[in-house]
Amino acid sequence: DWIMGNYIEEAVAKIREQVGDEEVILGLSGGVDSSVAAALIHRAIGDQLTCVFVDHGLLRLNEGDMVMDMFAGKLHAKVIRVDASELFLGQLAGVTDPERKRKIIGGLFVDVFKAEAAKLKASGAGHKGATFLAQGTIYPDVVESGGTKTKKATTIKSHHNVGGLPEQLGLKLLEPLRELFKDEVRELGVALGLPPDMVYRHPFPGPGLGVRILGDIRPEFVKLLQRADHIFIEELRSTVDHNSGKSWYDLTSQAFTVFLPVKSVGVMGDGRTYDYVVALRAVQTSDFMTADWAELPYSLLKRVSSRIINEVRGINRVTYDVSSKPPATIEWE
Ligand code: XMP
């Protein structure tokens, strides 16, 4: 009874009424929520929306280009891509503590976003500057921060979010997904014409590969991890489980590769190698509070392992993480 077409019409009308002839700025991350929010708001107000996509250099392989193709290319939305990878990787150099890494990434994200908002305002060209900040906040986020659930006494991982940004920027909030659950957000995304592959993607943490490279983040580690992870995801998507007819990507809740900054000995042809190690992580969960490691078929693991070792020079060993949450967490940092 939740009719998507009507829902879109109503939501569009509401956004138009709320925004009037003012302008809106939105931080696009490539994630499901901000993508669907952008597509919906763009449907409602077109060029009154400017998306700012901060590329922190810790995204998945080709992710930045994919986001641009989708939003600037196909939807014809106004998108500013900020290539901030040098800034982020520069500030992160030598930092090994996971929480410090998160704080640096979250803090820089806010700085870069604020600078872009100010630039936009100063750029003139009929631009009065945004008066609204749009966010892809969904119902579970509202409930979590509104106190319906009591806040956990200890923070295990400080999640990168842009809390406090509207106040800092002096902007009003526009949150058109506030009443929706994740499944509804996904349906809405598909109805708005976003590709199902994008809308049904596994969650990706705000700090990105920054928490999947253990310890010190170096540009060469980012490149190795991007390529290894791309192979893993490609094989998960293309391997179908015959019982369910679903791909192993769809049968897992989250799957990714972790870069371990340790070297181990291997052999290739007549030579000895001394290269890095990666761990594959795949979990099944309904709420991400607890999770089981996924019993991926050996044949799939075998293919992923040999492809990574053969195709990614610099990695000579692949391991599979068989730890459940708790006591392990899903991410390694
Ligand atoms: P853990 O590792 O705590 O992860 O079992 C649970 C879920 O949260 C995601 N996660 C994050 N998401 N910023 C995010 O936006 C973060 O700093 C962060 N740390 C973990 C993780 O990917 C998993 O889905």
TrEMBL record:
Q: Which residues bind ATP?
A: S29, G30, G31, V32, D33, S34, S35
Q: Does the keyword Membrane apply?
A: no
A molecular function annotated in GO for this UniProt entry is: ATP binding
Q: Which UniProt keywords apply?
A: ATP-binding, Glutamine amidotransferase, GMP biosynthesis, Ligase, Nucleotide-binding, Purine biosynthesis
- Give residue ranges for domain GMPS ATP-PPase: 2-201
Transcription as a keyword of this entry, yes or no, is: no
Catalyses which reaction(s)? XMP + L-glutamine + ATP + H2O = GMP + L-glutamate + AMP + diphosphate + 2 H(+)
Q: Name residues in a coiled coil.
A: none
Per the UniProt entry, the Enzyme Commission number(s) are: 6.3.5.2
A GO cellular component annotation in the UniProt record: cytosol
Superkingdom of origin: Bacteria
This protein's pathway reads: Purine metabolism; GMP biosynthesis; GMP from XMP (L-Gln route): step 1/1
The protein's assembly and partners: Homodimer.
User: Any idea what job this protein has?
Assistant: Catalyzes the synthesis of GMP from XMP.
Protein name, per record: GMP synthase [glutamine-hydrolyzing]
Q: Which organism is it from?
A: Vitreoscilla filiformis
- Gene that this polypeptide is encoded by: guaA
Q: Which residues of the full protein are shown?
A: 203 to 535 of 535
